Amino acid sequence: MAPALNGGFAYRDRIAPRAAGRSVSAFYAGCYRHSTPTDWLQRLAAGEISRNGQQLQADGALAAGDQLIWHRPPWQEAAVPVLPSPLFDNGDLLVFNKPSGLPVLPAGGFLEHTLLAQLQDRWPEARPVHRLGRFTSGLLVCARSSGSRAWLSALLRESTAQRHCTKTYRALLQPPVPESPLLALEPDQRLSLTTPIGRCPHTRLGTIWAAAPSDPVALPARSELRLLERGERAWLVEVTIATGRPHQIRIHTAAAGAPLLGDPLYAPGGLAAEQALPGDGGYHLHAHRLRLVCPDGDLLALEAPLPEALRGAADG
Known about the structure:
This protein is of the alpha+beta class. Among the domains are: 4-76, RNA-binding S4 domain (Structural Genomics Hypothetical 15.5 Kd Protein In mrcA-pckA Intergenic Region, Chain A); 164-283, Pseudouridine synthase. The protein has five helices and 18 strands. This is RNA pseudouridylate synthase.
């Protein structure tokens, strides 16, 4: 899809009691970290913001229960790949080989140039069951019915469902740092990665998912890494995930001292760089194989062709 102007969007927020008394510009700057209070004052002056149905042109204090709407004008969205035909379609489930660079859902400057929008142009009732990062390629499951979506979302999220679902990825890693446990691996050996993943402070977003080994409310997470090949510039690995946490493989490999090669966000240790964002690209990660039990009880086993950068000597 070529760059194109979208139709704009209305962002709606209701003011909670804890935000009462704050100015409109301060509230928005706290909620949407990509813009400063000055940016929001300019949007107020341009008539882009309304409160309780009335257009605002000046800053002012908010009251609990106020309904704010930011009428964002149309903006140009970047070019994205076209969604290919499904690898699998049984009338309920659809499975695609998502190309790298295609966002799944609206976010980060994308509204209409998404997998969701392209999907619903052809199958209006279908929705993605899970997410892949914008620059993660490979198998992505969608479902037409709400019952199937609920069933599969649980399978793809929780380790307790591992016997019903297995997701295996290919990735390129930076050569591990000296203290990394990956250095002890020989090809075909495995390592369990279990660092909890939680919300951590972030300059641009407020909070971001990252390694949180000492956070008591962090989410448990488990990945099984298998070394395929190692070289001076990069290590080729296979990772099977038993949980579906946000950015799990990126965080787990970084926490183990070997971030994805080219990942601008997660550094050794698994914490996020202050100025980078989750949608920034440069890494190689591919959802390669999927086995899951469908809602009707059938076993589905699929494999997405490997990108050139993720093929090893054994792949021919």
